């Protein structure tokens, strides 16, 4: 199997890497996370206008470049290495994936907005009793004349406080349907209550309560959305795995460099064999995570069962690697590893949170086992 990137893909990675090195400062991004909107909108627009990566995987008909899973993987990994907070996966991968599988002018307009950096989406699917089961939908939508009326509760909607539009799942006559809601967290529409909060990895999320929320008829994007949601979430898993690989590459490199600089008993602690063994284990976990990420990226266009198996295998592998690498890196840095001043503490938060994003490690192991038995 050939894992060599094309010249265009190498150029894409170099372009994003150089842009982030010049324009994305970790201290400024974390200051933005703690205050105001919780992100840097000007950077988001630069990613769209100057670098063009928000449309890299979107169709050319909506202003995109028409790239595929490999381009998404390259971008997500590069963003992960810089610990970018801005909602690339939530908007471009999840929002873009769902909208690509919808039809009609409303979906096309939203895709164009994503490519231009004007549309931010939040995927409102999880509910208080659903756990990580996106098919367990208690929220309902009913017709009232030409309109739709939504009732229900959605939890942990990541990026919702930043969003211009929500993509909401609801049950319609026993089928999972997908709706779009024009949104402003500071001024939500009548019938929608928003409770925003920061997440452990310094991002933003919200719990949403819909009470007789009235929507126009064209808000319905997909009447039978189950297949589209499953495919899109596997794409999101692949992107999150790539993002995590980027973060783990940076963490392993920084940890090795730190142990070369810190001295104990007159010698660098990197010379201690016990610590060398631990760093080798970190490297081995990273290499397995990279391989699993490549596998799901290449399997995204396979049949649903093979795609789902690869997605769960990758997510379980990434979860295990993120846990070990995150914990070992902090321990090898000592008490400094948990300070705000060092990047390693911020990376540790992200590596911890990613273990629960789009399903936990245990849940994906169980999913893989069930798919294998079937």
Structural features, described:
The protein is of the alpha+beta class and about 375 residues long. It has 3 domains: about 5-120, Orthogonal Bundle (Butyryl-Coa Dehydrogenase, subunit A, domain 1); about 120-220, Butyryl-CoA Dehydrogenase, subunit A, domain 2 (Beta Barrel); about 225-374, Butyryl-CoA Dehydrogenase, subunit A, domain 3 (Up-down Bundle). About 50% of the residues lie in helices and about 15% in strands. The chain has 11 helices and 10 strands. The chain has helices at about 5-25, 25-35, 40-50, 70-80, 90-100, 105-115, 225-260, 275-300, 305-335, 345-355, 360-374, and strands spanning about 120-125, 140-145, 145-160, 165-170, 175-180, 190-200, 205-215, 220, 265, 265-270. Helix 1 runs parallel beside helix 4. The radius of gyration is 21 Å and the shape is globular. The relative contact order is 0.11.
The residue fraction in helices comes out at: 40-55%
Shape: globular
Classify the beta-strand content into a percent band: 15-25%
Query: How many beta-strand runs?
Result: 10
Alpha-carbon Rg, integer? 21 Å
Question: How would you concisely characterize the structure shown here?
Answer:
With 374 residues, the chain is α+β, with helices and mostly antiparallel strands.
How would the blueprint of this fold be written?
Elements: H1 7-23, H2 26-34, H3 41-51, H4 69-81, H5 88-100, H6 105-116, E1 121-124, E2 140-144, E3 147-158, E4 165-172, E5 175-182, E6 192-198, E7 204-215, E8 220-222, H7 226-261, E9 263-264, E10 267-268, H8 273-299, H9 304-333, H10 343-353, H11 361-373
Parallel strand pairs: 1-4
Antiparallel strand pairs: 2-3, 3-7, 4-5, 5-8, 6-7, 9-10
Helix pairs in contact: 1-4, 4-7, 5-6, 5-7, 7-8, 7-9, 7-10, 8-9, 9-10, 9-11
